Write the structure tokens for this entry.
Amino acid sequence: MSYGKRKITGIRVKVNRLRGERFKAENRLMAQPKAMLGGPLIKMFGPCGNPNCRCKKKGNKGHGPYYYVQVKKPDGKYTHKYLGKDQNAIQLASNYSEYLKNITLLRRLNREIDTLLNDLSRSGIKQGGKYHGQVKKSGEKHQGLDAKQ
Ligand SMILES: [Zn+2]
């Protein structure tokens, strides 16, 4: 499939938009590192033990939020620890969440830009040309590449 000029322009516009987003994400990550816990903040809501409580009504998400931090166990699996009402710990876990959001976004943008630039570059490959897909016959010597022989 050959790329028309309109498609090439479309790819460039898309890459430029993604580069703008990447620049912002990079700047957020370049800022002075904030103190943080070693895992992201998890907010949870849930029902209580009282069968007559309003939290048992349909559509009620329950009591909360209750704050936890996600932590990695020595076996590599994840668990979470309750932070209670420790506002400082909640803020520090929230800082980790912010970092994680930015680094995940940066990686996604890099993959998207990589794919688009690869498509753009490869659109220059001539299909069906004289040198396209030619395989060297057995016993035939390379021309030029094996100059040392
Ligand atoms: Zn309740």
In short: The chain has a mean pLDDT of 88. The first helix runs from residue 5 to 30.
